């Protein structure tokens, strides 16, 4: 699918602010893909569609999670997580994208997972560091992303987990599993 067509589709799914974020993620993902030898077209499409379900009503996402037998522990955790697996499902069903690598990168762009592909990592990090992001610690992750994608992702995970803990929020177990996998990769293996 061409970029213009993909952008036209997502534009109808979201408000202006989310669309501008999407453009930022797309541009960042293409740069990271080029830098780290990842398929640029897949990175572009995964980035464009990563937040496809972000603006869907909560009850619709909940209904899809139940109906499609997605991990039920999702429902006991932050609703912010839901649009990732639901997005992958809807992008396949409504847009007709079937590439499993693209769908996986969309499905795990909030939690990550233990065996992330380079494409998964590119989308996760691009979502975190796109130019519109302003939160504390983002500049450090941008700097790390220029040198080492794994270290950038690990730092971003640490920031995310620390932030959630500081707000007394629950942490989705898969986010911890992702963190542990990267710690292992960086310190042992
Ligand atoms: Fe998202
Ligand atoms: Fe996003």
Can you put this structure into words, describing what you see?
This protein has 189 residues and is mainly alpha-helical. It has one domain (3-188): Hypothetical protein af1432, CATH 1.10.3210. The chain is 67% helix and 0% strand. The chain has 10 helices and no strands. The protein has helices at 3-11, 16-36, 40-49, 58-67, 83-95, 100-107, 118-129, 138-147, 149-166, 173-187. Helix 7 (118-129) crosses helix 9. The model has no long low-confidence stretch (mean pLDDT 95). One fe (ii) ion binds next to helix 2.
Q: Looking at the structure, what is the overall shape?
A: globular
SSE pattern, N- to C-terminal: HHHHHHHHHH
Structural class of the secondary structure composition? mainly alpha
Query: In angstroms, what is the radius of gyration?
Result: 16 Å
**The biggest beta sheet, please?**
none
Number of separate helices: 10
- Quickly count the domains: 1
Q: Tell me the total number of β-strands.
A: 0
Q: Please mark out the parts with pLDDT under 50 across 5 or more consecutive residues, or reply none.
A: none
End-to-end gap: 38 Å
The first-level CATH class name? Mainly Alpha
Chemical compounds bound to the protein: fe (ii) ion
Question: What is the average per-residue confidence, as pLDDT, rounded to a whole number?
Answer: 95
CATH topology: Hypothetical protein af1432
Helix content: 55-70%
CATH superfamily: Hypothetical protein af1432
CATH architecture: Orthogonal Bundle
> Strand portion, in percent?
under 5%
């Amino acid at each position: 699918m061409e970029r213009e067509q993909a952008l036209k589709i997502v534009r109808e799914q979201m408000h202006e602010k989310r669309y501008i974020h999407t453009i930022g993620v797309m541009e960042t993902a293409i740069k990271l893909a080029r830098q780290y030898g990842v398929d640029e077209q897949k990175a572009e499409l995964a980035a464009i569609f990563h937040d496809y379900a972000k603006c869907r009503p909560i009850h619709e996402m909940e209904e899809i999670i139940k109906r499609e037998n997605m991990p039920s522990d999702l429902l006991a955790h932050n609703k912010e997580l839901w649009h990732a697996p639901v997005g992958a499902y809807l992008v396949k069903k409504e847009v007709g994208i079937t590439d499993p690598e693209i769908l996986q990168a969309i499905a795990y762009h909030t939690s990550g997972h233990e065996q992330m592909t380079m494409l998964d990592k590119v989308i996760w990090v691009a979502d975190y560091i796109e130019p519109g992001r302003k939160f504390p610690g983002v500049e450090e992750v941008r700097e790390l992303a220029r040198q080492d994608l794994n270290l950038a992702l690990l730092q971003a995970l640490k920031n995310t987990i620390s932030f959630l803990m500081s707000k007394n929020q629950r942490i989705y177990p898969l986010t911890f599993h992702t963190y542990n996998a990267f710690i292992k990769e960086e310190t042992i293996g």
